[in-house]
Amino acid sequence: ISLGTRPENRAGSDEFWDKAEALMAEAARAAGTEPVVTPGDGAFYAPKLDFIVKDAIGREWTCGTIQLDYVLPERLDATYIAEDGQKHRPVMLHRAILGSFERFIGIMIENYAGAFPLWLAPVQVVVATITSDADAYAEETAAKLRAAGLRVEVDLRNEKVGYKVREHSVGKVPVIAVVGRNEAAEGKVAIRRLGSQAQELLTLDEAIAALTTEALAPDLRG
Known about the structure:
The protein is an alpha/beta fold and 222 residues long. It has 7 helices and 12 strands. It folds into 2 domains: 2-112, BirA Bifunctional Protein, domain 2; 125-220, Rossmann fold. Helix content is 34%, strand content 26%.
């Protein structure tokens, strides 16, 4: 995180800038990081915190930004009525959480080389059949996974299961749930994970519990 301070040509008093810069530095430290000060890199109306990320080959890109602005509320004569019944001047926050959305997505795809973790993958699970005898069970499995909040597709094509697994692995699908006649009879699924040849046989309820937990975004996990 970089802290861009007052540029030479700026609006507002030094008092406002002193206060805003101090508060921005304090906010960064409260978030657990010491900002790198970049003198003169602030906007003409406010200091800013820029969030800089490195891509897969080490290049730095500025993505998110937040600016603490005392100047524009003054110029706009903006006020609000506080609990004391009096008018007060607000502070304006300018923020771009991701910065350029396309740039952020590009950096993220490069970082994961397309192999997104389960919580982030556009398609989280593909239910693939071994034979057409399991088509109905595959649809039932997919419906229950979707009901649990997972993003699921079904592959009922008349192709060998090895072909299906290879194709969806090339597509970087994190989890392939293979079902055949035996799995349908026993209410189970064979879970194959991207990059692994191992197969884990679970009941459908066990698979749903495991995958829904894993599919939670990191900040939502206990």
